[in-house]
Amino acid sequence: MRRTKSAEGGRKEERWFVQCGDLTPLEEEEMSRRMIVGLAAIVMMSGVALAGNPGEVNLTVIVTPTLSVAVPRTTYDFGTLGAAVASVAAESTAVINDSTDATEKYNLKASDALGTVPWTLATSTGTDQYTLHAQFNSTEPADFGNGDDDYNLTNADQTCDGTIFAGGDQDGYNTPKGTEELLWFRIGVPSSVGSTDQKTIYITITALNQG
User: pTM for this one?
Assistant: First the structure.
């Protein structure tokens, strides 16, 4: 084994090299083994260095807004009506997005008219069968589409989508927090009834996340 020194450009280098003639066969084998082990260690260290700098961490998050709707009016009385009459409520029902952080749309549904002899909610009037329409608008609607399905309430939830229950300037859809919209109802009384007692109808308004 020999050592040489050199100086280039002000830099000193010291190198070691092996001449086979200087070593016995056993020494050559041992030297080869050490060189292989040393080379493996260098490769492993190089692999660690390739990990990268800087490192990165990916974060994910889902926001679940708190939904809420306020309906200050809890009752409305259509009064006494004749058979086969359609009547629009004289007053609207305010529907308010009172959530703290959500843009909302609404689901609407209605019950049958409950009493001694119930009225079935339908899309046309008949014996003990009534209709109920709803429409969002800032003023009393001029019409309800003459039975247009977009305004018919049913026993099942229907979701406002910009068309269903939509009026001229309000629609119960894409409603920012703090926004009040006015909901109007029109009832179609049965053509004939089995009892004349007062009936009660339940309207359910559910807030949904707009997204």
Answer: 0.73
